[in-house]
Amino acid sequence: MKAVVPYIKAFAILMAAFWGFALAACLLPDAPVQRHVAYSVTHGDLQIDYPRAIIPREECRMDNFTDALILNQAYMCSRDSLLVSSLANYHSCVGGDAVEVLQNLVAGEDKIKDAYSRYWHGSTYLARCLLVFKDYTAIRYILYFLSSLLLLAAAAVVWRRAGWRPVVAAALGLLAVRVFVMQFSLQFLPVMAIGVAAAAYLCVGPRHRRMSDGMVFFVAGALTAYFDLLTAPMLALGLPLCMAAWLTPDGEGFGRGLWRLVRLALLWFAAYLFAWAFKWLLATLLLPGNVFADAIQQISMRTSDIDDWTRLDALGANLKMLPWSYIIISLAVFIVLAVRRFDSRGWTRAALLLVVMLLPYAWYFAAANHSYLHWWFTYRAQGVSVCALLLAVAALIGPRKAKIEK
Fold first, then answer.
1. 6 in a structural domain
2. Are both 187 and 102 inside the same structural domain?
3. Does residue 249 or residue 1 have the better pLDDT?
């Protein structure tokens, strides 16, 4: 029981912080938020729902649809009481697609609204804070700048502790799923940022950090539930799992190492699921309607079989989005290095990383309906698979630089 107490305390603090942030965002002044949203739909780059970013291919499709929904909620945030605004997450429903609806909202056509209470919508509250100062286009550049700093800082921390291989493998894995598109998006960015930050924090020496490995995964799971709208949550779990596997101490057996990774993953899932359930309970108790029942019905639908398709089709739809030539060339380079500088001490790490590689595919199989319908962004979870595969080969390249602090 003693081991559970810190996690119960952490969960209580996180839930209070999540709701507190929502309440604080709703108290922000409406005028600058609404002015910047209006400018975004008339002069900014929020004009169509699904534009392509940088490269005109499906793999680089932006989700302006969901970003427009986020701005819609931020615009309407204070239309109701503070309690309702922080939990119901109302948005206008006048019009067709999300960008058109937002344009109609700015034009004053907001007679119909709908609640979206299942999610915490942390991205909406973050967007509202940023919209006090800047419009959507400027916010995209801010997100790109800050996420680039995060990636560079994480690379420096990981390189110093664990060497070049995790840095290169993670970079190649994230590039395989077009990380540069995620950096511009309110919808896509959170899972990548949480995963990268958690992986980097694991590389901070135990003497210089306050959270245990288990607590890092627990906090990451809760943050994912708060900010993510089911884009690619396995990125937020899989990237730190790759790092945890890479930092496996010399001499630890496969069974013990696997059990350690399973415990860390279970802590992540516990926080992820309980954070969702707490929002459903809170909304059900304080708002009209049964949000809990609605959430359970949505889970049943998202994990159900697909009409006229199979779960294997969901896997195939996501697999086809990967740049296979790029992956094969990257893998071949790592294999050549492993052959020339083979180190048999890396077999345990390699085996653990191959298990982590399967994580996104287990998610696709379980959440088949959602993964098939939204393949064009759910495929990004495979950044974990590419990273883990390359690291599995890299684990056999010697000597391995890893400053493991006792």
1. no
2. no
3. 249
